[in-house]
Design a protein that fits this description.
Layout: H1 5-8, H2 22-32, E1 36-41, E2 44-50, H3 51-59, E3 80-81, H4 86-96, E4 100-104, E5 110-115, H5 116-122, H6 125-136
Parallel strand pairs: 3-4
Antiparallel strand pairs: 1-2, 4-5
Helix pairs in contact: 4-6, 5-6
């Protein structure tokens, strides 16, 4: 029997709204010890904001802490469904070089978030290891290597 993401994910997820400030989002990240917050509006996932988004799209650009989340969030959101197999999601995380994914139900409502650490705790060691190796391979959207 294969493990489903719903068995591995973190269920209690804090969300930001697009109208909150990046200062508020950063405070929420501190409170829940997370580097990412899903961004929701009208009960729908519309983006994510990461500590990296705040650093690179706000602080580095000289934007105010009062800047709206919507102005720096990532609008292209990769996600998975709660009924997907852990092995499949781990491969997708590896292929896309992401460390966390929002988890949706089939009605596209946010029900959790899954991180590489969640996979390491719930999947077999080789599944988590392959995902970490793929994520760690240079390249991807946030690589510091010259393109």
């Amino acid at each position: 029997m294969t493990t489903k993401i719903r068995e591995a994910m973190t269920q209690k997820v804090r969300m930001a709204t697009p109208d909150q400030t990046i200062r508020e989002a950063a405070r929420i990240m501190i409170e829940c010890d997370a580097g990412v917050l899903p961004v929701g509006e009208d009960d729908r996932l519309i983006g994510v904001i990461t500590d990296r988004d705040i650093a690179t799209r706000a602080v580095a650009e000289g934007k105010s802490p009062e800047t709206a989340v919507r102005d720096v969030m990532s609008k292209e959101v990769l996600y998975c469904f709660e009924d997907e197999d852990v092995e499949h999601v781990a491969k997708n995380m590896s292929d896309n070089k992401v460390r966390r994914l929002p988890v949706l139900n089939r009605k596209k409502r946010l029900v959790g978030i899954v991180s590489i650490a969640d996979l390491a705790l719930s999947a077999n060691a080789s599944t988590a290891g392959r995902a970490v190796a793929g994520i760690s391979t240079p390249g991807g959207a946030h690589s510091q290597r010259a393109h």
